Amino acid sequence: MKKLFLFVVTLVMALSLFGCAPAASNPAAPAAKAKKEYKDMTLCYPQLGAESDWRTANTASIKENATKLGIKKLVFSDAQQKPENQISAVRACIQQGVDVIALPPVVEDGWDAVLTEAKNAKIPVIIVDRSVKADPSLYAAHIGSNMELEGKKSAEEMNKLLPNGGKILELSGTTGSGAAVGRAKGFREALNKNIEIVDTQTANFTRAEAIPVMKAFLNKYGTDIDGVFIHNDDMAIGAIEAMKAAGVKPGDMKIVSVDGTRGGFQAMIDGWVQADVECNPLLGPQVYELALKLMNGETIEREILTNETVFYPDKAAELLPSRQY
Ligand code: AHR
């Protein structure tokens, strides 16, 4: 009897050692944290503006994916390309206690104070599309394009279009924006030495502003210009309007543009644009996926770059019907 008792005790001890004993509940143990889902997410997207078809597509991607994934709430605003409006929108989101802020910054500078406020409030920030010049510890990650690479690709296209060199103009995006700064830098680094940039002016990524800027360029330099590097398709469309009014014909000045919007494709079909460097605005799925990971404290990649290509006139008509923006 005593032997049997000892055997049973030993067996129970062995089973519990190997984790086979029935689980005893421990009320003092902390409950495992439930994984957050999209339905729990409130995401703040202080959009920088509505200046271009690219931007419209970016906004649509954020809004459509919010619905598709069934997130709890999207706090969306439009800063009308004004940094001060965007900073106020971020502050309002911090006060509301959103889960994640996804910020497409209009310009690179001036973010340290408000990013510090978000950090102190324990709200992670994802920088979307353009870059910021801020202490990297103030934001979680960046999702978007490599703007310098886009500028480099644009220069390589211009080099091919003007093998004997020439004089070109540059229509630049918003001054101080990561997109304009990166594209200008990459372009200059890769441009052949026999091509001279005779002038550069901003038109803030808009069609409306590109018309007078191009008109002034044509008045000043005549038509003695071999090419134009234009930082986005909307400005290209505006510039083409000014060229048409001045009697310039498609192909007289080689145009390299950026984005790959439907408007850019049409300008290639019409013979005005010779190369369109892709910049993809459809960032919604990546933004929400990363935001959810942040809410769950998962390990994330800090830099998520979009894979992009270059489009040419020969395939433009074939590809245009399937373009999403
Ligand atoms: O930051 C991306 C740029 O902003 C796009 O090239 C342009 O079209 C937009 O306005």
In short:
The protein has 325 residues and is of the alpha/beta class.
Characterization of this structure:
The protein is 43% helix and 18% strand. It is built from eleven helices and twelve strands. α5 (147-161) crosses α6 (178-190). β8, α8 and β9 (254-259) form a beta-alpha-beta unit. The strands form two sheets. A six-stranded parallel sheet has the order 2-1-3-4-5-11, with helices on both faces. It binds alpha-L-arabinofuranose. Alpha-L-arabinofuranose is lined by residues 51-52, 54-55, 129-130, 179, 205, 232, 234, 258-259, 279.
Order of helices and strands: HEHEHEHEEHEHEHEHEHEHEEH
Mean pLDDT across the residues is 93
Question: If helices are DSSP runs of H or I spanning 4 or more residues, what is the number of helices?
Answer: 11
* Alpha-beta content class: alpha/beta
List cofactors, ions and other ligands: alpha-L-arabinofuranose
Morphology: elongated
* N-C termini distance: 84 Å
Radius of gyration: 27 Å
Helix content: 40-55%
Q: Residue ranges: pLDDT <50 for 5 or more in a row? A: 8-25
**How many β-strand runs?**
12
The biggest beta sheet reads: 6 strands, parallel
Strand order of the largest sheet: 2-1-3-4-5-11
| Beta-strand content | 15-25%
